[in-house]
Design brief:
The complex is a heterodimer of chains A (about 250) and B (about 375). With about 250 residues, chain A is of the alpha/beta class. Chain A is built from nine helices and ten strands. In chain A, helix 6 links the parallel strand 7 (about 170-175) and strand 8 (about 200-205). The longest helix of chain B is centred in the last third of the chain and has 32 residues, at about 325-355. The chains are: A alpha/beta (about 250), B mainly alpha (about 375). The interface between A and B is medium-sized, with 33 and 27 residues.
Chain lengths: ~250, ~375
């Protein structure tokens, strides 16, 4: 069953309760429940088509759930546009394909939301944008356009862009899947640092090394269900279900 | 140094160039010879007709024809240029439409320069158009009032085209966004509008505007003929432009919408800051295509009796003193239209080249 949500001592930052989602006839999520505490790092893994991306895209309403209930920092994710925008201000997201705005420079990409959504003064926004670029170790790329950067650099800009809104939660949707192997580490390093600073994170990834170092909890999904959750050391050493065993043997076996 | 090194091996001399480009094969050589023959046969006679044997000054077509013999009779244009430029506008006030034409040209020139692309440009246009309106109508600052039935010629053509584009373009963006809206009523309304207008010839729109619309207005209310024709042009062009803009919107990857949403940008800000700047850049070639079409379509207002460039010309030709100068007159009109349309086309090509070097093309290629 899906009483996977472990008892949260602190107030839950994200609370997903009995959520289902259909794409036409296809049920992408089946009665999924998950609770993410403040400061917690969750790694979601599972075979492709298992619903992991769909689940995190429900959290900031990029997809709409048909049943169940999702709360983010005390606000319900529902049809109310104002509430959705309020949630999106608190929840940063990093995509597989970066999705930087190609017509704006790196600096403008970072300043766009703070200036237009948070109404930050331009000067202040620029200053914190430059600080963020230093934090993701590409301060010298500020005035370039995204198309001039490598994939790894673009993804770090994307992380900085999400952080520019000073979110309480960061969602990562396969952030390294579109990268060349030699660029994966530079992105993961930034994510590890972020985790160490105490950010609440939900990360969909197949990078099991990252999961081992950072995750408080691994969520394994298959066919739209959360099959298994557990601490990384338990999950990797002794997966409880056959499906998790099979999955781990497939991704770790070579 | 030896002579061999002076020319880079990649740059052929004129003879080699001709051999590889003009005479590379038998069919190619035949085509080259045919083209040369046609050029030799038609260009020199045209030059001597249009320039060498032409007459530039004469009091009437008869005198002109006698003087010119086989040459062109440009004296007609010289004699009638004020009528062609300004229509039936009172003769002694011709400086007013004259200045208006210059103002239009200045507005075009300023708008063409990308460093002026700031919100101020909107104000400059507002000021410019207000000034043009004041000049044309008069009635203020001691200027004589001239009702717009007397406006005509080139200035009317520019007026119809400029206002046509200036209003149709924003309207088309709204329609394109509406057609992609998730609200069924908005979407349906936009689809019906676009399909209905696109399915009707512009001429019938102009007729409707000039003949039918007054029937539906309460008696006593009259909307001026120029305004009605202008509205018809705007509504017509907007439907076409909307589809062009929609094409641009569709080319924007879904990830751009999602990234903007995930940052908490509202619909209006997503659209204005992220989506439209990219969509309009890719739409430049078809947009300018439609603008050029609209510029030339303004000539259709003759059918409801507005005195645009072409009708002014035709009217001048009807004068007994100047009969039989049609070829020269219409060549001149074509030249005027060509100059404006070619300028638009050249400008859009330059803009495309500039932007192709810029970020959008590169990044879209990447994703």
């Amino acid at each position: 069953m899906n009483d996977a949500a472990k008892p949260a001592p602190k107030a839950a930052m994200i609370e997903i309760q009995g959520v289902s989602k259909w794409f036409g006839e296809f049920q992408a999520l089946k009665n999924v429940s998950l609770s993410v505490a403040k400061g917690e790092k969750i790694v979601v893994c599972g075979p492709s088509g298992s619903g992991k991306s769909t689940m995190i895209r429900l959290i900031n309403r990029l997809e709409r759930h048909e049943s169940g209930r999702i709360m983010v920092d005390g606000i319900e994710v529902a049809d109310d546009v104002k509430a959705i925008e309020a949630i999106r201000r608190e929840v940063g997201m990093v995509f597989q394909s970066f999705n930087l705005f190609p017509h704006l420079t790196v600096l403008e990409n970072l300043m766009l939301a703070p200036v237009w959504v948070r109404k930050a003064p331009r000067k202040e926004a620029e200053e914190s944008a430059r600080q963020l670029l230093a934090r993701v170790r590409i301060p010298e790329q500020a005035d370039k356009y995204p198309g001039q950067l490598s994939g790894g650099q673009q993804q770090r800009v994307a992380i900085a862009r999400a952080l520019a809104m000073r979110p309480k939660v960061m969602l990562f949707d396969e952030p390294t899947s579109a990268l060349d192997p030699e660029m994966i580490k530079e992105v993961l390093d930034v994510m590890v640092e972020l985790a160490q600073e105490g950010m609440t994170m939900v990360v969909v990834t197949h990078e099991m090394g990252f999961a081992r170092t950072v995750a408080d909890c691994i969520v394994f999904m298959d066919q739209g269900e959360i099959v298994e959750t557990g601490a990384p050391k338990d999950f990797f050493a002794a997966p409880k279900t056959d499906r998790a065993k099979l999955f781990l043997s497939q991704i770790l076996g070579h | 140094m030896s002579a061999v090194l002076r020319r880079s091996p990649g740059l052929p001399g004129p003879l080699e160039w001709a051999r590889s480009n003009l005479f590379s094969s038998v069919p190619n050589a035949l085509l080259t010879l045919l083209s040369l023959y046609l050029l030799w046969k038609y260009v020199p006679p045209f030059v001597s007709w249009a320039l060498l044997d032409a007459v530039w000054q004469a009091p009437s077509s008869k005198a002109c024809r006698e003087a010119a013999g086989a040459g062109a009779c440009w004296a007609f244009i010289g004699e009638k240029h004020r009528f062609i430029l300004f229509g039936t506008y009172p003769f002694e006030e011709h400086w007013r439409p004259g200045v208006s034409i210059l103002l239009f040209l200045a507005l075009y020139a300023v708008s063409a320069m990308r460093r002026f692309w700031t919100p101020w440009l909107g104000l400059v246009w507002l000021a410019g158009l207000t000034l043009i309106g004041m000049l044309m109508w008069g009635g203020v600052f001691g200027l004589r009032y001239v009702e717009n039935e007397r406006w005509g010629g080139l200035v009317l053509t520019l007026l119809l085209a400029t206002f046509g584009i200036a209003f149709a373009f924003p309207l088309s963006i709204a329609l394109a966004l509406g057609r992609r809206s998730e609200m069924p009523v908005v979407r349906a309304a936009c689809v019906v509008y676009i399909e209905l207008i696109r399915g009707v010839p512009l001429i019938s729109m102009l007729f409707m505007a000039s003949v039918m619309m007054p029937l539906f207005l309460p008696s006593g209310v009259t909307v001026d003929k120029l305004l009605r024709a202008q509205s018809a042009l705007i509504l017509f062009a907007a439907a076409y432009l909307a589809e062009v803009v929609r094409g641009g919107l569709q080319a924007i990857p879904r990830g751009q919408y999602e990234a903007a949403e995930a940052l908490g940008l509202s619909f209006a800000k997503r659209t204005a800051l992220v989506i439209l700047p990219q969509a309009l850049k890719i739409s430049i070639p078809p947009l300018v295509n439609t603008f050029i079409g609209l510029f030339k379509d303004t000539s259709l207002v003759v059918i409801i009796g507005l005195f645009d460039l072409l009708l002014a010309l035709k009217t001048a030709l009807n004068e007994p003193a100047w009969t039989g100068i049609g070829v020269e007159a219409y060549l001149f009109a074509s030249l005027v239209y060509f100059v404006f349309c070619y300028a638009m086309s050249q400008y859009s090509q330059r803009l495309e080249r500039d932007l192709a070097r810029g970020p959008v093309a590169r990044a879209l290629k990447d994703t």
